[in-house]
Design a protein that fits this description.
This protein is an alpha+beta fold. It has 3 helices and 4 strands. The model has no long low-confidence stretch (mean pLDDT 95).
Length: 97
């Protein structure tokens, strides 16, 4: 069953973000996924969780939960996590259904 990965992003370092963004797509594709959507947050309507405001989002799509898990734990993705940590604060979660 296809799954989505949603990322809520708060930018910290635009230059590091550009580096991360140039590399992450290849890691997603290697595990059968693709970037379905990405963009900036225009206007939040509610934020009732203890979640700091975020500025951008990304939606990834994978053929299965197993593919998404393999990507998230892959050596290719783990190699760019230090760049990601410099570039942004991130909430990343898998959505079924």
């Amino acid at each position: 069953m296809p799954v989505k990965i949603i990322g809520l992003i708060r930018l910290k370092d635009p230059a590091a973000f550009d580096i991360y963004r140039s590399q992450v797509g290849a890691t997603v594709e290697r595990y059968g996924g693709h970037i379905a959507a990405r963009g900036t947050v225009d206007k939040p309507y509610w934020n009732e969780l203890p979640c700091p405001p975020f500025e951008a989002y990304v939606e990834l799509s994978f053929p299965s939960a197993e593919d998404a898990d393999r990507w998230a734990n892959s050596p290719e993705y783990r190699a760019i996590v230090p760049v990601r940590e410099k570039a942004m604060d991130l909430v990343l979660f898998r959505v079924l259904g």
